[in-house]
Amino acid sequence: MVTDPVALQLTAELFPSGISRYAVGGLLVGLGTVLIYVGTGIPAGASTFLESTLSYVSDQSRFQQYVGSRDWRLVFTAGIVLGGLAFAATVQSGLITTSLYEPGTTGQLYEVAGVTLWQTDVQPWRLFVGGVLVGIGTRIGKGCTSGHGVCGVGSASKTSIVGVLTFLTVAIGTAQIVAALGVSP
Amino acid sequence: MTDDRHPLFKPLIFVGGLVFGFGLGFSQMARPEVVLNFLQFEDFGLVFVMFGAAIVSGIAFALLPRLRDRAPLTGDTYERRLKPLDRNVLVGGAIFGVGWGLSGICPGAAYASLGVGNVTILWALAGMFVGAYLQGYWRSRSTDAAPATAGAD
User: Fold this and answer.
1) Tell me: the pLDDT tens digits for A130-171?
2) Any idea what the Cα angle at residue B95 is, between residues B93 and B100, rounded to 5°?
3) Which of A113, A162, B8, B86 is the most buried (most CB within 10 A)?
4) How many whole angstroms separate alpha carbon A93 and alpha carbon B15?
5) In chain B, which residues have their Cβ closer than 8 Å to the Cβ of A17?
């Protein structure tokens, strides 16, 4: 076996953290979606939770249409949060080690009760303003990275492919401009 | 519609969410920095998360309708629930893109990020609820004003 040094170097440049953690993570995200779909026939997206949860506290007609699904969406989201925690308690804490996982050097690690947790360095104002736009945008645009990106693209929906291309292109442009303006982290 | 579902309905949704969130943690898509590095072309690995997930779910979406008619826990048919392609997909997608590019955070990854210990992400979650509320408030008013267009999606 001869490995092409040019290909190897290109890989190192494009994927400085390797590929495996991304590929394994993506397969698990897909698997979670598939589990729900196989049992229920529901292609679940993560952003409808925002509107469906607002239906508990607001009687706006826009939110009331999600009363029927708001309970399971709450369960789905609790699962996602606890899935993140399960990852923190195992792989991130070093309880499970695998060559497929590259830890990364961003943000700050801290420890609570023996569990290694992680916190971002990205500034709160970016998170908040970005969050508001994400909240408005996913609702107008009928989906987010999971609804359009995973379920929609997975079912070859033209709407979702157009949606993904739109938000991906705009996000790349935005991130490049923000970085060029010297905003960091 | 809500209460006569199979007793395993919510447990399965929960387990699905658990695997989904674990995957977002493992891939580090729950870290805004990693998403921003991707959008700035410094690390293309994130491509494997979204497309890896879409391929896995795509196989199930294509296969299941051929194997069975209805899902065991809901009795729902395995069908494509397509959303209409209109101007909103472009406008909303663009607004979402600006938010994603500014913060490095999207809804599912934000929930998982809270789980990995990132309490600062509460800013993003608060923002998302504010955004969804503003959009819903505005949409409710315009739909109430013109009831003929209600229920399009």
Assistant:
1) 999 999 999 999 999 999 999 999 999 999 999 999 999 999
2) 90
3) A162
4) 22
5) 28, 34, 43, 45
